[in-house]
Amino acid sequence: MSFEHKSVLLEECLEGLDIKPDGIYVDCTLGGGGHSYHIASRLEGGRLIGLDRDDDALKAAGERLSCFGERVVLYKTNFSELSSALDDLGIDKVDGFLFDLGVSSYQLDTPERGFSYRYDAPLDMRMDRTSGITAAELIETAEYGELVAILRDYGEEKFAPQIASAIIRARQTSPIDTTFALRDVVASAFPAKARAKEKQHPAKRSFQAFRIAVNSELESVRSGVSSAVDRLKSGGRICVISFHSLEDRIVKNIFAEAAEGCTCPRDFPVCVCGADPKLKLITKHPITSKEDELEDNSRAHSAKLRIAERR
Ligand SMILES: C[S@@+](CC[C@H](N)C(=O)[O-])C[C@H]1O[C@@H](n2cnc3c(N)ncnc32)[C@H](O)[C@@H]1O
Ligand SMILES: [Zn+2]
Known about the structure:
The chain has 311 residues and is α/β, with parallel strands linked by helices. The protein is 44% helix and 14% strand.
């Protein structure tokens, strides 16, 4: 399988990063190296650091970006460890950070990664296959309350209690350790009327929910984006593309707080914290894909890009 992945909001990110040819740019979600390729092409004397927690992504991007030689440095890490990765690379401040969150089409479309209900495969769902527990292990051990919370909070699934009960019943007979086993248990928990009304596969939200839980995606976004704000040079830019409302809300809040500065309670008559604003918001409202990109790329439909600049 080739690393076929159309980079979302590419032009908007390149413009948003306001690339300086001699700058240091960090692509925190390298994937197949799509965005990185175009950033690196604009550098002269500058450097692009590409981070990913997925070995396959690093390998594919390494091939795609080999033409840039030493201008590009790839490094395996969860971006929740952004600060120590930069320390390790000997980099203090950065001219621009890009986050293109979530999974790549390559990860989704590689059956054995276990991300998709479209192919039957072991239920893995880890972006980094060398650490953490798989979705099968999570589903085997989670208690009812935890399953409901995952499905409700990360999948915004209204049938969370019914699905959690169906999982607990099913796993008493045999382990739910393949994508199709999970798909069928989830579908069986939907009332027939609700299933008939669904425009998408009834398991789509549940798969998203377990993927977010397995990879601690929201915690990573929180710490990764906050660290990036701290490591930006004055005038440096941060661009974050998110794909669902939970991620977007986290990014929006981190940016808003950093743009506000003062963290005193609202009812204080005067500021006593003395905190200065760190960011200037470049996008008041997130940028979404234009019509031609929507026609061309299904991932673009839910993409939202927020951009901010370090003061
Ligand atoms: C949507 S893809 C990026 C695609 C890329 N922008 C391109 O144009 O080819 C997201 C990538 O980020 C990686 N990723 C997601 N969360 C991560 C995290 N917390 N730390 C490191 N990499 C992460 C995934 O493994 C995946 O390869
Ligand atoms: Zn204050």
